[in-house]
């Protein structure tokens, strides 16, 4: 069992290296990181139940997953075709659209989950 776990360590190093690359190179990742921290702070302050946390974590994960895939696809397209090509642009734009869709979805989920208790705390207390 120990040997199996040790054999998995390089895979985790590669995964964390990829996450580090996303954070170092993608300006939008800092927006996602800020939103993630804000949601975690607000959710903790509001004392959300496990189901609401699960939904928020899923939405946050969806955005980060989309951003990571978008970054990977952009790097791969640049590797395969460093010159400007209409299909390369379509691939990159479509991947960016996936991140946008995920971010909008997460924002709506955040408003639906965090909005009512925030309104109650600030305006109905």
Terminal CA distance: 54 Å
- The helix-strand sequence is HHHH
Mean pLDDT: 95
* Uncertain stretches: none
**Number of distinct beta strands:** 0
**Helical stretch tally:** 4
Helix/strand/pairing category: mainly alpha
Strand content: under 5%
Shape: flat
* Cα radius of gyration in angstroms: 18 Å
Helix share bin? over 70%
Q: The biggest beta sheet, please?
A: none
Molecular structure report:
This protein is an all-alpha fold and 125 residues long. Helices cover 90% and strands 0% of the residues. It contains 4 helices and no strands. The chain has helices spanning 2-25, 27-46, 50-80, 86-123. The protein is flat and about 60 Å long. The relative contact order is 0.11. The model has no long low-confidence stretch (mean pLDDT 95).
Question: What keyword list fits this structure?
Answer:
4 helices; mainly alpha; about 120 residues; flat
Secondary structure elements and pairings:
Blueprint: H1 2-25, H2 27-46, H3 50-80, H4 86-123
Helix pairs in contact: 2-3, 2-4, 3-4
How would you concisely characterize the structure shown here?
By secondary structure, this protein is mostly helical. It has four helices and no strands.
């Amino acid at each position: 069992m120990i040997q199996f776990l040790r054999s998995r360590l390089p895979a985790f190093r590669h995964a964390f290296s990829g996450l580090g690359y996303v954070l170092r190179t993608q300006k939008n990742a800092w927006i996602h990181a800020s939103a993630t921290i804000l949601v975690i702070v607000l959710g903790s302050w509001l004392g959300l139940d496990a189901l609401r946390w699960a939904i928020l974590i899923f939405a946050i994960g969806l955005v980060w997953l989309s951003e990571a895939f978008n970054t990977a696809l952009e790097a791969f397209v640049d590797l395969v075709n460093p010159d400007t090509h209409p299909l390369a642009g379509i691939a990159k734009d479509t991947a960016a659209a996936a991140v946008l869709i995920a971010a909008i979805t997460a924002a709506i989920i955040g408003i639906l989950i965090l909005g009512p208790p925030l309104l109650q705390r600030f305006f109905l207390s």
